[in-house]
Amino acid sequence: MKQKYGMTILLICLGLLHLAVFAAGFLSPYDVAEQDRELPFAPPTRIHFVDARGALHLRPSVCLLVEDSAQFGAYHEDTQKCFPIRFFVDGPQYKLGAVLACTRHLFGVDPPARLFLMGTDGYGRDLFSRFLHGGQISLAAGLLATLLSLGIGVLLGTASGFFGGWLDAVVMRFGELFIALPWLYLLFALRAFLPLNINPSQAFLLLIAVIGSVGWARPARLIRGVVLSGKERHYVLAARSFGGSPLYLVRRHILPQTYSIILTQAVLLIPQYILAEVTLSFLGLGVGEPEPSWGNMLASVQQYHVLVSYWWMLLPGIALVPVFLGYVLLANTLQARAT
Amino acid sequence: MRYLGLRLLQSVFVLLGVSLLSFVFVELAPGNFFDEIRLNPRISSSTVTNLRKQYGMDQPLPARYFRWLESAAKGELGFSFAYNAPVGPLLWARARNTLLLTGSATLLAWLIALPLGILSAARPRGWINQASELFTTALLAVPDLLLALGLLFLAVHFHWFHAGGMFSRESAEQGSWVLSKDLAAHMVLPVTVLVLGSLPILLRHTRAAMLEVLDSPYVRASRALGISRGRILFRHALPAAINPLVSLFGFSLGSLLSASLLTEVVMSWPGLGPLLLEAVLARDIYVVIGAVLFSTLLLVFGTLLADVLLFAADPRIRTEGLA
């Protein structure tokens, strides 16, 4: 009973995370490409509930950020010029779900004040907006690559389990090659043989193809195992003796037996593949600028001085932890249920 | 022994398969090293053609593959375009550093995971188990990349250890003792990342394997006979639980190598990782193929080693082998 409850909470949390990324345009105050050349590497904006005179306000406000004249690249707040945070404001146009054009944002602040929840990068772009939008690419890459992997896995796994013989031998030996390699090396190798200088949308599709085609072998093996035992079940044998075609048998009687394995594998693969996208984009082999992705947002941290001087550049990475935690806990619960 | 010979043969086939697959991929892929240098206006197209001929890239795929096999037999593994040198020695110098890193990380991770896993299994309701459960879940949720970046940040911020590289510049001329101390200081960060990254899986499997054995009737019987707790744990339960762990040792090398690749790049450790990344960016295909093969070799060697260990550790398999 208690476990069921936990599972529901977990699913709701994960759902909300994905929803937040889906509605990135609405939740983020700025456009991903909008640069503020006056405020490169600005720290996260402080939100005040108490104004300069010490009075408490229910409506939070932010103060204007001014560059220090004494020290290059440092900022201080002008506490005399504070602007309230407003909700449901009009702002830059975005497309909700890539279709619906909107201008309404959840929150914002009147110019000239700026609200950077996670600070800005070297071009003065809002990291929070970029993080939410970057999630669209990273999550979509993870989900679609998982779909591709499982698709190949189910197809080859059922085929080799059901028909057996030489097909089984070929598929399984081929799969062993994929399992024998460390995944990141394999990913690198596949990426190495593909063109480097391509636009972000091509890179996105390429990434899904590469990541998805690396991990099919393990699900295929597991599904093959289930199919092997599943096709000997009495009701399957009975259906076969009534003249059921292979396609019918697989679709109606054998595949349903593999659903729980497919589900568990999906939950295990999704975070792995999100991480694969993050890793490749981090190393400059994935989706490139100016399009944000969780990986390429961290890429600038590879420079020492950025890592040392601007700690908030790590925030997009730290914000990944809840996503992974959600999937890890979900996988744990699913596996605990299975045993 | 026959079993081992069979496994050895199988490994050779895996390596051959991986190399053949790589070559086919290269053939299918658009663009190559020479396309990249053709972009350079100072290099004429006849130079590029000559270079292609010199490296044998104008020959058909089977011919190239056999040439490569020939050079692989000599330990050269093809020729790097970017370094203008045979790939083999190039890889070996880097692979030593990677091996140093992964070897110490594996040792350390198992040294931590085994006792901790055994203790958590011995007292499922104890605080050690609860704490290690929390710890593993938290670690599983933190990706290796973030672990490396975070540790690097902390190290640089608080001036803890030497962050980045393998040796300090000053220690190069001094004696071997100073040199090895310097190396150890540089290894702390990357090894920590690798250990923390591989620990959760090892810990979980150790605990699960021990729990399964501790639940069996013969352990209950030995407890009823009055055998002490420690003797049951280490003399009776551990040898029986070691079997899946030894196999895990072989498999975990793969993920360790992947984690090591990333850590090396982030911490600028001169291992296979940075070399491979450079080669990918320069489309230096023989280096890429060589590095991938090398990692496969390490992995295959790891599983073979695991098999030998299994043979030594598990009497059930030994008798099976004799029969």
Number of strands of chain B: 2
Structural category of chain B is mainly alpha
- Please tell me how large the radius of gyration of chain A is: 25 Å
CATH class call of the domain at 100-282 in chain B:
Mainly Alpha
Classify the helix fraction of chain A into a percent range.
55-70%
Runs of chain B with pLDDT <50, length 5+?
Answer: none
Q: Give the helix level of chain B as a range of percent.
A: over 70%
Give the neighbour order of strands across the main sheet of chain A: 1-2-3-4
Concise overview:
The complex is a heterodimer of chains A (about 350) and B (about 325). Chain A has about 350 residues and is α+β, with helices and mostly antiparallel strands.
Please explain how this structure is put together:
The complex is a heterodimer of chains A (339) and B (323). Chain A is an alpha+beta fold and 339 residues long. Chain A has helices at residues 2-22, 24-27, 127-163, 165-180, 183-192, 200-214, 217-230, 234-241, 246-282, 294-298, 304-309, 315-318, 320-338, and strands at residues 48-50, 56-67, 75-96, 100-109. In chain A, a hairpin with a 3-residue loop joins β3 and β4. In chain A, α5 crosses α6 and α8 crosses α9 (246-282). Chain A is elongated, with a radius of gyration of 25 Å. Chain A starts with a helix and ends with a helix. With 323 residues, chain B is mainly alpha-helical. Chain B has a two-stranded antiparallel ribbon with strand order 1-2. In chain B, α10 runs antiparallel to α12 and α11 runs antiparallel to α12. The chains are: A alpha+beta (339), B mainly alpha (323). At the A-B interface, α4, α5, α9, α11 and α13 of A face α1, α6, α7, α10 and α11 of B.
